[in-house]
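It would be a great kindness if you could assist me with a short task in structural biology. The full record is reproduced below for your convenience:
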Amino acid sequence: MSRIAVISIIIAVFAPLLPGDDSVDLTEKMKDSLVFLEVSRTSWEQLQPWRQTAVSTAGVYGTAVGSNEVLTIAGPLANATSIRARRYDQNEYISARIKAIDYEYNLCLLELDEAAIRTPLEPLQFSDKYSRGKDLYSYRLDSSGSITKGRAGLDRAEVQFSPVSFVRTLYYILTTPSRPADGGEVFCLDGAPVGIACWGSDAEVGLIPAEMIHRFLEHGRKPPYRPFGAVGFEISSLLDPAVRKFLKMPEDCRNGVYVSSVYTMGTGSSELVAGDVILSIDSCPLNPYGRYQDPRYERIGFEHLIAQHPAGTIIPFEIFRNGKKESVDVKIQDIKADQ
């Protein structure tokens, strides 16, 4: 037997055992789980704010999370006058209404008219999987009625400003996408949905991860909707030993981030004062940059600790104030964009 033949046999036997990319094609499976959303909307003229603009139409992508429930991003639905959904292999549009929406965290739950649905949607179950360096595959139902597939690599998890509000929240950052992806299309890892895209470019894609989606759906299905926490203070890094000495912090205390200012609303606005040093939030120590060691995502911003809780929840802050450590119970508060 030739050497080439032997090598071919070895590859055929052991290839299934070798780690590889997620080559599972879910296009067929996604046909009953994806919808295209046509959103008609209007706004107000900036120079004449008493006048409305003409109605415009935008398209976004939705993912089934119930038999007649669809998840998408909130930004394009602002000032919507009507929302219609189109399914795969179905020309008619189905009317939809907003069931729950969170503009700060850019998520929206829609409810489709059950009487207009021929067969129930096939809901997808989002997974909390996170594997840096692996390829993720995206799926969306386009306006033409065809399913388009894409790919991008999972580079990291990072706390960033939301593209539609002032809050900082957790995103999966994907790199080297095969095409720009945004508008709510779903991304999968090892065949399981792990998030929906909310912004994208030729270089990167920002993904709202499953853990944010799970919390939103849990509270969005139980009206009244309880929004998630937003930070009510500003911080600055605490690296300078002279500043630590001025604050009378012990030399062996190397953690903590400086509170430079406090808002009139948001989490911590009632309990913290400028000049405090936050040592830990919810028992998670903060480094001088305001980051903590997350068991899944490694070092990420403290804002994620606050965004994990709905408004009204009480969590402990350990702070350094007036030369001594204190434990403060802080009430989670949200900040709405119109406040």
Observations:
- Confidence is low (pLDDT under 50) at residues 4-22.
- The chain has three domains: 27-116, 135-220, 233-331.
